[in-house]
Design goal:
- There is one protein chain.
- The protein has 683 residues and is mainly beta.
- It has five domains: 119 residues, Pnp Oxidase, Chain A; 104 residues, no CATH class; 147 residues, Jelly Rolls (Sandwich), CATH 2.60.120; 76 residues, no CATH class; 83 residues, no CATH class.
- Helix content is 9%, strand content 43%.
- The protein is built from seven helices and 49 strands.
- β11 and β12 form a beta hairpin.
């Protein structure tokens, strides 16, 4: 902000723009609208037209935009030769070099109002046109940039990932927090290799995705660390593709009361069954049974081991004769009882819970858990009579699988070589400014700017505020080329922030804070041509179906939430299927999106609580837009993203509401010589 003296009064503005056209030899041409000397440089007052500079931010898409400009000058004599000969064809090169634009009002210290790249020079013999673009360092850059010697892109990965447990101790494979690694078409020492996103990593264990069971299974004999091959860091998958041991609950079961309780992960509620054989006469045996049928999942690779773990109990009621009740798995007895009372499974612990029995069930395509009761008559003249009850609290399968390298070695090699992706739980890239892990969306964004676009490691403006407000976690990867600009804007939208370069060329982050600080307070004496209008009804965002946590292997998402604001929908007569936005987020994984509804008021949430809360706080209700022309040079340093308030205004109210307590963000600024217009949006 320039320090204007008290002699500068509203309506008494004399402005000049100073253009510095830099060349590749540390020199520059200085142009302006009128001759001016500043900082020992003479600015030639030769510019014939009055260009405008427009800056804006789009809060709905979290993007920023800068307009291009052109200036026209005569082909005047410059250091003894036409200026056209200096600008092109000589020893100095101006095309694709930086052009900075500065404003000086009433002879005060200039402030920078724009930064551009010179892209074109044309002449009609007497007049020269110089075109400049709002060039940004991410232009014409794609990522990933590195390839293996086999011409496979080396992945980029950001975020905190988690591998599944592996080894001789069995575990459930619960993690889908992994990212894909592509086949690099290279094999060595009975391993097929895949490109990894980082250098040496102790958590690089590769996983196989079995689509039949929707599980990511670690390879038993693969290394936890990367290898350096074909100019890339790689992970190796053994050709035998051995996977195991791992636990899984069956997908389907039937035959008992509440059968699903046996596989629903809640070990406090059982599937139940009863048996009651007919009374058996002397030397006679009667039986009754009830079968709980369990489907065995079909794997992509060959199943080599299968064990069934059952947590359950049987209760036997011995009325007379020789009787017993047993619990069998494929006719192999787990527990049995021949007297009144209850017996439980035991001997094994699963996932920290004891009381499981185990049966080897390899070679079967389905599993019968059989409650069996027998009653036999006895001498002299004793009838057999009994009944039984069974409870199954949990059923777990322990699996192991691999390719058949003995009888089908060729087919195994062929199958392994056709695996296009493996998946890893090794964490993504560390940041480029202090080497800390990247776990949040805004951290990945800043790293991309440094790593690929040459941004300085110096802290951008408002970074500290953004870092304090945002804890939105990321898992994002790229396997094929994508424009850097596209990736950056994707992260901006999903992360709820805007990145831009200020007019002076310094980097800046903008976002709606939980508590916003007012930068400037304007009055009716500072603004002319004031216009107030409500935001468009079409901008309303009252209901959103958000899909997030991208599946590593399939084109879908692990979580979908519906959030809406019932009050706003009622106030504006929005029907059930109107104003519904469907959003898919490829990077966002947390915080969990609250399913705001009638009982949970999103209006009371903080903007940075989650993705929906952020955009709802901006667009969830009709608000006001205030625009006008700045007539007080004190505020010629306003910039987009600045927070402003209004006091002592005309009109005295905003459609019946007070100005007091309302904050606005500058969303658009347009500068022409002696004129600064703005548009601001209520926040």
């Amino acid at each position: 902000m320039p320090n204007f003296g008290t002699e500068i009064n509203t309506g008494n503005i004399s402005e000049n723009w100073l253009f510095i056209l830099n060349n590749d030899n540390s020199g520059a041409v200085h142009l302006s609208f009128k001759d001016e000397m500043y900082n020992s440089n003479f600015y030639h007052g030769v510019i014939l037209n009055k260009p405008s500079i427009r800056e804006s931010v789009d809060l709905a898409n979290s993007t920023s935009k800068s307009g291009n400009i052109s200036i026209n000058i005569p082909d005047f004599s410059y250091q003894g030769s036409p200026i056209s000969e200096e600008l092109f064809g000589g020893s100095n090169h101006y095309i694709n070099q930086v052009v900075s634009v500065h404003s000086t009002v009433n002879g005060q210290t200039p402030i920078q109002i724009g930064s551009f790249r010179l892209i074109d020079i044309s002449s009609d013999g007497t007049k020269i046109s110089i075109s400049m673009t709002s060039h940004r360092p991410w232009d014409f850059i794609s990522i990933p940039q590195d390839k293996t010697e086999t011409m496979v892109h080396i992945p980029i990965s950001y975020g905190d990932y988690t591998k599944n447990p592996y080894g001789t101790s069995s575990s459930f494979l619960t993690s889908k927090d992994l990212y894909p690694c592509p086949n690099i078409n290279h094999s060595f020492n009975d391993n097929i290799y895949f490109a990894y996103a980082k250098s040496y990593d102790p958590d690089a264990k590769p996983h196989y995705y079995d689509s039949n069971i929707d599980q990511f299974i670690p390879f038993e004999d693969s290394s936890d660390s990367t290898s350096s091959l074909v100019d890339a860091n790689c992970v190796g998958m053994p050709v035998d593709m051995e996977q195991g041991y791992f636990l899984i609950r069956p997908f389907n079961c039937s035959g008992w009361s509440d059968s699903s309780y046996a596989i629903d992960t809640d070990i406090s509620t059982p599937a139940t069954a009863t048996t009651d054989p007919d009374v058996a006469g002397e030397a006679e045996t009667t039986t009754d049974e009830s079968r709980l049928v369990i489907d065995v999942p079909v794997l992509d690779t060959e199943l080599t081991e299968l064990y069934v773990y059952v947590k359950g109990e049987i209760t036997h009621n011995d009325i007379s004769g020789n009787t017993y009740t047993s619990l069998r798995v494929n006719d192999s007895t787990m527990i049995t009882r021949s007297s009144d009372g209850t017996s439980s499974t035991g001997g094994h612990t699963i996932n920290g819970n004891s009381g499981y029995s185990r049966i080897d069930a390899f070679g079967t395509s389905s599993i019968d858990i059989n409650l069996y009761t027998s009653s036999s008559g006895d001498q002299p003249n004793i009838e057999g009579d009994s009944d039984g009850e069974g409870k199954i609290y949990d059923v777990v399968l322990q699996l192991k699988a691999k390719n058949d390298m003995v009888d089908e070695k060729t087919a195994s090699y062929e199958k392994a070589s056709k695996v296009s992706m493996v998946y890893t739980g090794g964490d993504g890239l560390a940041n480029s400014w202090d080497a800390s892990p990247i776990t949040e969306i805004h951290e990945a964004h800043r790293d991309m700017l440094i790593r690929y676009a040459g941004l300085s490691t110096d802290t951008p403006e408002n970074w500290a505020n953004l870092d304090a407000d945002k804890d939105w976690s990321i898992r994002w990867w790229a396997l094929e080329e994508v424009e850097l600009k596209e990736a950056l804007e994707q992260l901006q939208y999903e992360g709820g922030f805007i990145f831009r370069y200020r007019a002076d060329g310094t980097p800046q982050y903008i976002h709606i804070r939980d508590t916003n600080t007012t930068d400037y307070t304007l009055s009716k004496y500072d603004v002319a041509d004031l216009t107030i209008k409500p935001t468009s009804f079409s901008e309303l965002l009252t209901k959103m179906e958000v899909s997030y946590e991208k599946h590593p292997a399939e084109n879908r998402y692990l979580t979908t939430k519906t959030a809406y604001a019932d009050t706003a929908r009622t106030n504006w007569n929005i029907r059930a299927k109107e104003n519904v936005s469907q959003v898919s987020l490829d990077a966002y994984v947390a915080p969990a999106i609250t399913e705001y509804d009638n009982s949970t008021d999103v209006a009371s949430s903080s903007p940075n609580d989650d993705f929906f809360a952020y955009y709802y706080n901006i667009f969830g209700d009709i608000k006001t837009i205030v625009s006008g022309k700045i007539v007080n040079p004190k505020y010629y340093g306003l910039d987009v993203g600045d927070m402003i308030e209004f006091e002592n205004m005309y009109p005295e109210k905003i459609f019946g509401e007070s100005w007091s307590g309302k904050q606005y963000m500058i969303t658009t600024l347009q500068r022409t010589l002696g004129v600064l217009t703005f548009e601001s949006r209520e926040i």
